[in-house]
Amino acid sequence: MVQHFDTLLVNIGQLLPMESKGPKRGKEMSELQLLEHAALGIRDGKVAFIGTMVEADTFTANQMIDCQGKLVTPGLVDPHTHLIFGGSREHEMALKQQGVPYLEILKNGGGILATVEATRAASEEELITKAICHLNRMLSYGVTTIEAKSGYGLDRETEWKQLRAAKAVGEQHPIDIVSTFLGAHAIPTSHRNDPDRFLDEMADMLGEIKEQNLAEFVDIFTETGVFTVEQSRTFLQKAKEKGFGLKLHADEIDPLGGAELAGELGAISADHLVGASDQGIQKMAVAGTIACLLPGTTFYLGKDTYARARDMIDQGLAVTISTDFNPGSSPTENLQLIMSIAALRLKMTPEEIWHAVTVNGAHAIGRGDTAGQLAVGRAADVVVWDAKNYYYVPYHYGVNHVHSVWKKGEVVYERRRAFEGLSISR
Ligand code: IZC
Ligand code: ZN
User: Fold this and answer.
1) Domain named Amidohydrolase: which ranges (predicted)?
2) What is the pLDDT of residues 214-227, one digit of tens each?
3) Which of 80, 81, 82, 91 to mutate to test the pocket of ligand 1 (most atoms within 8 A of CB)?
């Protein structure tokens, strides 16, 4: 049957549709669907055909794109970012080199608290402009959907400013943004002696945030010197009662029992998990909580112990990975670099990594039905890669392999052709 499309991508070397009913858990993460010598049809911004070149033989289109044997995948999902913030923290790099621990810098009023100061001082417009720069870079690396957290206000006014800025950038940028309220990110200097009162103040904002639909998820930093497991439980229970999905910064630095709490409360994801216990992993498996691993942060903090991805996958967890983009512990927008670190340090296979950055990332932020997969009827969020196969992207590390990025059927990023005409080999 002759079919006509707005756009038809032809001569795709490898196509990864990543079709899946739910998140891929445990062994399912290695079962990768792969179409070779494939074609992808787009109509009205949506995927309208996925199949082989033989099936597409008679198809016509307003524009035919010859992919010349390249890899094509869904747009990537980055499920844990601290997108909206003022300033930067490059001066802390020297402190880290001298061996000052992350939590020590925070205790001395630096770290998150330094970014809080800069974020309070920035106007909403400035936050928006800065966030758009970061989003542009993410898009250039193939990311089409992200989660963005507040948490650099730690007061009503600035937390609202961050949430409004996240909404505004989501409305004007091709990347889809899922918003998380992280008012419980650190104890502000003003409340150092009364963290419970601070958490009550942040909890008082929940009703209004829900009414204005400014966040879908609520997150907390459960960590030594920040919030205890008990404080986290009380705070997150209030969020759950208000109808928010739950996330935790769990067991990032010290193994406090954040993974157990995530399982107990039925959180959608628990993030970091470097120190997660066996019991915590089991509780998450029972609850269906997704493990969001951030190996770029472990790398950047100069640590040798990484999250136990292999044990988590063996225990049947769905694992996703993320940049943790933030100005302190992981200043990078490059999710491809994180894919390489996941391969090298988390010992994840290429098949697991591709599930992690697509379908599982989407499920970790409540977008399983719309993002992370190429299926007929879904938005055509597509990446064409300058790579012939899916092994290549995590292998050739630290550089950008994107050829072009499509959002809802339109090209939104294309690699600059600075080297056009020069013969360069990979
Ligand atoms: O700004 O340091 N871990 N929050 C928890 C962060 C890292 C972000 C930061
Ligand atoms: Zn984080």
Assistant:
1) 63-93, 124-413
2) 999 999 999 999 99
3) 82
